[in-house]
TrEMBL record:
This is Endonuclease IV. Keywords: Endonuclease, Hydrolase, Nuclease. The keyword Nuclease applies. Pfam families: AP_endonuc_2. GO terms for molecular function: endonuclease activity. It comes from the Bacteria.
Length: 233
């Protein structure tokens, strides 16, 4: 589930939780992310971002989600007051970790795409950041965020405490396209991750009730016989 998606459709977390329970489906939640930045130099934006992420943590608790994935903060201006941004990242992530612990929600920080204002884009950056926190912060690896010339499997093996994989395809000009529509080496990636006992979340922007994007993902997985896990019993 994605918090923004639920807000858009005014979905009931209680109804979703009961439906998931009846269907024996586990839920994960992606926190709100639009217009948010917990590292912003603008104090108003920074504080409201924390408010919105706490709201997402509350939603995760209501859903009974396995974990909540959320985005790290970003630079307001690249190469300006770098230390201030990094301090905000540690301080405010710790605040969210402490709040999530009270709500019995597991947090998972997403490794972001390599674009100028993102702060955590490579495994070594994430590991160094995790070491500055009190309490375990898990990590979400988004396959589409890994540069096409790099290896998602190598990223996974160099990250610590990964508890979620986000799956979609990617091109040189666009992240998060339907599976089979991009340039990710999907056969190799799926062969590896289908044997890893971690939640795999199909990702894509789709606000329609028809869920055409999701259906393209599923059609690809079904055609290539990847709907079933390959984990040995």
């Amino acid at each position: 589930m994605w918090a923004e998606h639920m807000y858009y459709h005014q979905a009931s977390p209680e109804d979703i939780r009961e439906t998931a329970k009846a269907e024996q489906v586990d839920i994960t939640l992606h926190a709100a992310s639009w217009d948010l930045n917990i590292c912003s130099l603008n104090q108003g934006i920074q504080q409201q971002s924390i408010v919105e992420l706490k709201k997402s943590i509350d939603l995760a608790a209501k859903l009974g989600a396995l974990h909540m994935t959320f985005h790290p903060g970003k630079y307001t201006v690249k190469n300006y007051l770098t230390a201030c941004h990094q301090e905000n990242l540690v301080t405010n992530t710790q605040l969210l970790l402490d709040y999530a612990k009270e709500k019995q929600v597991t947090l998972s920080q997403e490794l972001m795409e390599v674009i100028p204002k993102e702060m955590l884009t490579y495994p070594e950056q994430m590991t160094q950041f995790q070491a500055k926190l009190n309490g375990e912060l898990c990590v979400t690896l988004d396959i589409a965020h890994v540069p096409l010339q790099d290896d998602p499997i190598n990223y996974f093996e160099h990250l610590q405490h990964v508890n979620s994989i986000h799956l979609s395809d990617s091109t040189k000009t666009q992240y998060h396209v339907p599976l089979g529509k991009g340039s990710v080496e999907l056969h190799r990636v799926l062969t590896y991750f289908s044997k890893i006992d971690k939640p795999i979340v199909l990702e894509g922007m789709d606000t329609t009730k028809e869920l055409a994007f999701l259906k393209q993902h599923i059609a690809y997985l079904n055609h290539h016989h990847w709907l079933e896990r390959k984990i040995d019993a």
